[in-house]
Design goal:
Belongs to the SEC23/SEC24 family. SEC24 subfamily. The chain is of the alpha+beta class and 745 residues long. 31% of the residues lie in helices and 23% in strands. The protein contains 24 helices and 31 strands.
């Protein structure tokens, strides 16, 4: 569980918080195997015996004062009695995790019989769009073949297709058999037949280890639905002219109901991989894609506002059905046409899944992403609870979870991998703040309760006998991290303790929320105003702007680069980069609304360092493929020219680019050889990613360098109106400086 705060020295009271101009909060990556310093938790059992405070329900931790019979809660100060079993346990503190570490992971007892525990087989279902192209299906087949290699022994796999009908495949016999159920074309009608009646669920879900070849054979039979088939389908009792044929909403709803019958019996979590090649245009949940069109050219409609909200609650409601059925949905959209991900995204993010967008089949990383996603551990049925000491409280929470309807600051997470990150911001409970001389410093406690599926104890999956392959065991665990912070005595201590990457994380969450509610223009304005206020507060705190005859001097005196505080220096650059990011660029600049939604979903789950990379890519240079020149450059043409280095490596999180300058020595090997330092760096970067970054090699003067040059944002105008030497980051700083001068008048 990695936790990072915007400031490690907390503001002492509301006045200090306001004077700082900084967001106050933290990010947490609960299922990360280690903390932010690379330290693993202390593991143990009997989590249900961990003492809890009678007042605030916080868990006992190393910061609590303990005597023989009682303990003081480190969060609220309440004196709690110790039960007799705890007194006996704590008489030998060295063997007790909660006595030795503030970061613990304890096993909890499971409800249910031993038999129910071992019947929890992992279930995976692929739902494939046949209203598509041959290229789309070839890519999907490759992805699923990669997925089959990553699935653990004992897993069950189901293959379904959708178009104007739902196809269910039985691959457990000698030849794959498909049963079809036709989808009513209108948006109101449900299926005429339950899927269970078409094919019993346990006939549909095949054991991977015995049916892998037959699943692969069934995939080879998939063909796109032709327009003739669609119209003949319409003739079979369907009225009216058939305009589309992608009955995605009906198919998903039917699949969730189908799987839900075995939830808690055959499986504890089912994952549905939905492969989509365009917008749902048939049956329930069909979407009107005509809203993305020429009408936004008129100045009366703000496309940046109109295209971000969902047009129907259908998929949000469908996500609730998925959760109740124990289903997590990952949506893989491979399309460059408008698909309205603003409506579809809820199906994935609210069921605990991921949303992937690929603009074409040519260079798609879909197979690698599938393999990577299934090859990493994940937890499910998770609860995340944030508690704080009494002087302050969590104000907002951000991330792909849903709040508990009854308990405050308790979030439900359906499925959580080791990358998924969530954020909180804080506020004071009242005007008092923290005491300057109190023995009770600010404390944050994060509790994460989760379930994992583990193979039988003592056997690796390769050693399991075939009869035991399916006998996975559910394990419920409780991970707790308790952190003690200090309160800053003055503004300098706050500024000196800033983590700019976490500040960026909270800013991104806030501008995404504002964009969704009020449009991109408002999101940009919020960001601009925040930087103006922070700069003004900083200049005030350091007395950098002098008064003359009762008036402040000209804006030329304003320190816009935070030269007195190295921790704040990166922030103007990061805000500029965020304003240049497609997340906040205007519709008329050619930002596709689906790509914007994809970025919102991606950036909402990234941990701070990865998000920093996605907003302001890192650029390093090499003298040769085996020798690094500089570890970091600013994203400007000037930086490239002055460095004199021949090779550059740019990491933009989703894209990696190796660029050889036009003046590079022709004898330098291109592309860089596999055994060189640069390749080693690239491989390390790729290995640590939640998604597979696209790798490009560009030779300046010979190849089209546009992809690389687009990332050199510092000479680009912040409003996207082109390139000019007088524009870009320098002009942006001038504008901020003038706004600060106005604000401070």
């Amino acid at each position: 569980m990695a936790v990072r705060a915007t400031v490690s020295r907390f503001p002492i009271d509301p006045d200090a918080l306001e004077a700082s101009g900084l967001p106050w909060g933290l990010t947490v990556t609960p299922f990360a195997a280690k903390d932010e310093n690379g330290i693993a938790p202390a593991y143990g059992s009997n989590g249900h015996l961990l003492p809890r405070c009678e007042n605030c329900y916080a868990y006992f931790n190393t910061y609590c004062e303990l005597d023989q019979w009682a303990w003081n809660c480190s969060l609220c100060g309440t004196l709690n009695g110790l039960p007799s079993d705890a007194i006996a346990r704590y008489s030998n503190p060295h063997s007790i995790p909660e006595m030795s570490s503030s970061f613990i992971d304890l096993e909890l007892p499971l409800d249910g019989s031993e038999e129910e525990m071992t019947l929890a087989r992992p279930v995976y279902v692929a739902a494939i769009d046949l209203s598509s192209s041959e290229e789309f299906l070839e890519l999907t087949k490759s992805a699923l073949l990669a997925a089959l290699e990553a699935l653990s022994p004992g897993a069950l796999f189901g293959l379904a297709t959708f178009s104007h009908k739902i196809g269910l495949y039985d691959v457990q016999g000698p030849v794959p058999v498909v049963k079809n159920v036709f989808i009513p074309p209108d948006a109101e009608s449900k299926l005429p037949l339950e899927l269970e009646d078409a094919m019993p669920l346990l006939q549909f879900l095949a054991p991977v280890e015995t049916c892998k070849d037959r699943i692969a054979a069934a995939l080879e039979t998939l063909r796109p639905i032709t327009s003739w088939e669609r119209s003949s389908g319409a003739a079979q009792g369907m009225d009216g002219v058939l305009m589309g044929g992608r009955g995605f909403g009906t198919a998903m709803e039917a699949l969730f109901n189908y799987l839900g019958s075995e939830f808690g019996n055959t499986f504890a979590l089912a994952r549905v991989f939905a492969f989509l090649s365009g917008p749902p245009d048939y049956g329930r949940g069909q979407l009107d894609t005509s809203r993305y069109g020429e009408q936004y050219a008129s100045k009366r409609v703000d496309a940046d506002r109109a295209l971000l909200p969902e047009q129907t609650p259908f998929y949000k409601d469908l996500a609730t059905i998925a959760v109740q059925a124990g289903v997590c949905v990952d949506v893989f959209a491979v399309t460059n046409e408008y698909t309205d991900l603003a409506s579809l995204k809820f199906l994935s993010i609210e069921s605990g899944g991921s949303l992937f967008l690929y603009s074409s089949t040519d260079d798609s990383t879909l197979p690698q992403d599938m393999f990577r996603m299934l090859n990493r551990p994940y937890a499910f049925n998770c609860l995340l609870r944030m508690r704080t000491s009494t002087e302050f409280k969590p104000l907002h929470s951000f991330g792909h979870f849903f709040p508990d309807p009854q308990y405050e600051n308790l979030q439900h997470i359906i499925c959580c991998d080791s990358y998924a990150t969530y954020a909180y911001d804080f506020d004071f409970a009242d005007n008092t703040g923290f005491s300057r001389h109190s023995g009770y410093p600010p404390v944050v406690q994060i509790a994460f309760q989760y379930t994992v599926v583990v193979p039988p104890e003592g056997l690796s999956s390769s050693e399991l006998p075939s009869s035991s392959r399916g006998k996975h065991t559910l394990q419920r665990r409780l991970r707790i991290r308790t952190m003690q912070f200090s309160a800053a005595q003055n503004i300098n201590e706050i500024y000196d303790s800033v983590d700019h990457e976490v500040v960026l994380s909270l800013l991104v969450h806030k501008v995404i929320l504002v964009s969704l509610e009020d449009g991109v223009r408002e999101g940009r304005a919020l960001l601009h105003d925040w930087l103006v206020i922070l700069t003004a507060q900083y200049n005030d705190a350091f007395n950098l702007v002098q008064y003359k005859n009762g008036n402040r001097s000209m804006s030329s005196q304003i320190d816009i680069t935070f030269s007195q505080c190295p921790q704040l220096e990166p922030l103007p650059r990061l805000v500029f980069a965020l304003l240049r990011n497609p997340l906040l660029r205007f519709h008329e600049e050619g930002v596709h609304p689906d790509y914007r939604i994809y970025l919102q979903c991606l950036f909402s789950v990234l941990e701070p360092s990865s998000l920093h990379c996605g907003i302001y890519p890192s650029l390093m240079s090499y003298t040769t493929p085996d020798k690094q020149a500089y570890p970091r450059h600013s994203l400007s043409r000037a930086a490239l020219m002055t460095s004199g280095s021949p090779i550059f490596f740019l990491d933009a999180y989703t894209t990696l680019i190796v660029f050889y300058s036009s003046t590079a020595d022709p004898s330098l090997p291109f592309p860089p050889p596999q055994d060189c330092l640069l390749r080693k760096t690239i491989n390390e970067v790729k290995q640590g990613r939640s998604i597979t970054p696209k790798l490009m090699f560009i030779r300046g003067g010979q190849d089209d360098a546009t992809a690389f040059e687009n990332y050199l944002i510092e000479e680009q105008d912040v409003d996207g109106s082109g390139f000019a030497s007088s524009m870009g980051f320098v002009a942006f700083l001038d504008d901020i400086s003038q706004s600060v001068a106005e604000y401070m008048k």
